Amino acid sequence: MNYLRAWLLLGFLILVGLILGPVFNFLPNRLTVKVISPDKDFLAVSTCLQNSCMDCHTPGATILPWYANMPIASDIIYSDIANAQGAFIISRENLSGEAPFDSVQLNKIKMVLEQNSMPPVLYLAMHWNGGVGSSKNTMLKWIDKASPNYGLKPIPKEDPFHSDAEKVQLGKHLYFDNRLSVNDTISCSSCHSFDRGGADGAIVSAGVKGQKGVINAPTVFNSAFNFVQFWDGRAASLKEQVTGPVTNPVEMGSMWSQVIDKLAKDEQYVADFAKSYPPSESSTSKHSITVRNISDAISTYEQTLITPNCRFDRYLQGDKQAINSDEEAGYKLFVSHNCVSCHTGINFGSESFEKMGVKKNYFAWRGHLTNADNGRYNVTHEEKDRFEFKVPTLRNVALTAPYFHDGSVNDLNVAVKIMGEYQVGQLFSDQEAQLVTKFLNTLTGEYNGKQLTLENNH
Ligand code: HEC
Ligand code: HEC
Ligand code: HEC
Asked: Does residue 203 line the site of ligand 3, with CB under 6 A?
């Protein structure tokens, strides 16, 4: 019965669209983006995206027709555009070819084309030449050519960073050194413990004097593969990231001048820094312990905190027996429900910022909004970035509860269900969620050649 009503409504809307569509189509004033890419095949792709997707996904690309400002229409159209741009941005620079699409973007376009899920039906009813039609195959071919190596990747067996051994050793001492905090009580390892999957097992971390932070601590393992650091991406690199916690009042609460004074009293440090970072000729300082060198040493050490050889990596490398049939079924669900459109690449995440709540409003459900919930918006102050977060890695996720930036979920199974409902619009049954969770359990890797567990990883 409900189906019937939905179809009648749809039929009615399409009829209205057919009558009014041609009238309205004269009205939107689309600012065509000129293609400057040298790639000849890109012209057809950009033209199609401009025709079918730009109205909703490109900020400032379309001057909406007059009817968009009518009371009811404006609510629908503007909230649709806000949702569309929260979920996916195609920038003008992407369309011109100035800023090439990255592989996450390309594969999302591929996903919606294959599913025929975009543009939305209602839009097609209003803009009957808005569909991708016969351009679809051209687009798919071009995407495969432009982004050939997309997908889940194993951690390479060879250390990809070739880190300098002495700097690694020095960085390791610093990583475990409480003297980086104001009252010598907290080290990096306090909140990024190897016995807690590289995190701390708390909803939010406790810093100096037991002060509570505002956001869940992500794992330090494999952070060297992240495209940016922190949930909101405010640090571009690991080296830049290190300066955050040391001076953060609720984390280590220190000042760099203090830290450097303390470390400079330690002869071992003075000698080790001199070896790894020889002071320049012109330097007047007696040692080379500087913010820059401390950050460099710690971030060099962090490059060694990688966990290769999880069972699923072995599966990807060709050992089909490395995971059992339940785990494989979970992997197939993970792919078929598009989890992989965001959790992709070498870290099964950390390649893009994505909105928490693409298909449904997560924050309305959870309640009590905090400033940290604004995510990427806190860095850019652009509306389209509100509630967007760096997609977390899923490596070792079985060890890093509680989950999400708000640490609100303890059980991985529940986290999977929430992702299903809010990110891909899929209500998983208990059995399906359990299969996906079993798959996620195969992502626990090895540190220093030993399987990572919740204890004894030193
Ligand atoms: C009438 C507005 C509109 C048009 C036109 C439109 N989209 Fe969307 N799109 C949305 C909305 C709203 C969402 C977010 C909600 C959702 O995903 O259902 C979205 C979500 C997406 C997503 C996020 C992934 C997903 O499935 O949620 C992608 C990718 C996407 N669109 C690509 C495209 C492409 C490619 C085109 C052109 C072929 C296009 N869209 C045309 C409104 C639009
Ligand atoms: C008091 C707890 C605490 C201490 C001490 C601490 N961190 Fe963190 N760390 C966090 C929290 C919380 C975040 C997330 C903050 C955010 O995203 O806004 C974080 C984020 C990170 C990230 C980014 C990971 C990612 O996926 O984005 C790295 C890397 C990191 N910390 C390394 C370090 C290093 C190195 C030190 C020592 C210099 C350190 N942390 C000290 C709690 C802590
Ligand atoms: C549109 C992009 C997107 C899709 C699709 C997506 N995720 Fe996520 N995932 C995210 C983001 C963003 C977060 C962090 C959200 C937060 O912390 O508020 C996340 C967090 C998670 C976490 C918690 C990780 C942690 O350490 O806190 C798990 C587990 C997870 N996703 C699994 C899945 C599964 C399973 C699917 C498919 C059903 C899926 N995701 C689909 C973007 C996505």
From this structure: no
**pLDDT confidence of residue 440:** 98
| Distance separating alpha carbons of residues 306 and 304, to the nearest angstrom | 6
Q: Do the Cβ atoms of 238 and 171 come closer than 8 Å?
A: no
Residue nearest to ligand 3 atom 32, measured at CA = 416
By most ligand atoms within 8 Å of CB, the mutation choice from 176, 240, 251 for ligand 2 is 251
State if residue 354 touches ligand 1 by the CB under 6 angstroms criterion. Answer: no
Residues sharing a CB contact under 8 Å with residue 344, sequence separation 6 or more, in sequence order: 104, 107, 150, 151, 152, 351
Of 411, 94, 423, 370, nearest to 232 by C-alpha is 370
- pLDDT at residue 213, rounded to an integer: 93
Q: How many CA atoms lie within 13 A of 351 on its CB side?
A: 23
In the block, residue with structure tokens 């960073």: 161
d(CA 383, CA 77): 16
Rounded to an integer, what distance in angstroms lies between the CA atom of residue 125 and that of residue 10? 9
pLDDT-flagged residues of the chain (< 70): 1, 13-30, 63-71, 75, 456-458
Q: Nearest to residue 34, comparing CAs of 91, 96, 92? A: 96
Contact 82, 39 (CB under 8 A): no
pLDDT tens-digit series, residues 39-55: 989 999 999 999 999 98
Residue 385 contacts residue 353 (beta carbons within 8 Å): yes
Widest pairwise Cα distance in the chain: 84
The pair of three-digit structure tokens given for residue 169, joined into one six-digit string: 């050793």
**171 neighbors 297 (Cβ within 8 angstroms):** yes
Round to whole Å and give the CA distance between 329 and 339: 14
- For 210, the token pair is 């037991």
Instruction: Determine contact, residues 252/398, Cβ cutoff 8 Å.
Output: no
Nearest-angstrom CA–CA distance, 396 and 403: 12
